[in-house]
Amino acid sequence: MDGIVFFRTERHDDVIEFYRDLGAEIWLEQPECTILEAGSFRVGFCAGSEADTEGIVTFVFDGRDGVDELYEQLEARADGEPQFNDTYDIYQFFASDPEGRTVEFQTFE
Asked: Which end of the chain is flanked by fewer CB atoms within 10 Å, N or C?
């Protein structure tokens, strides 16, 4: 079974560009919706009168190198440097997309 998480967006083009810059590819274009794919993760953004910003979009990497690489790219948007979270045994950092959605980058350890 596969899945897709959808969000309404007021800034469709800016949001799509942000996630494409992170390495996501366009999987499917639909009227007013773009579905992106990064590995086995799919997320869709559909034009709306307001943005859905609740929840967390999480990208999972095979190791710390992937997390660190994205941190270098997003340092200005990051909430802080990557760090180990011993509660969940993950190495992670958080950032915000152009509409203020929380985006997490992590690897399980």
From this structure: N
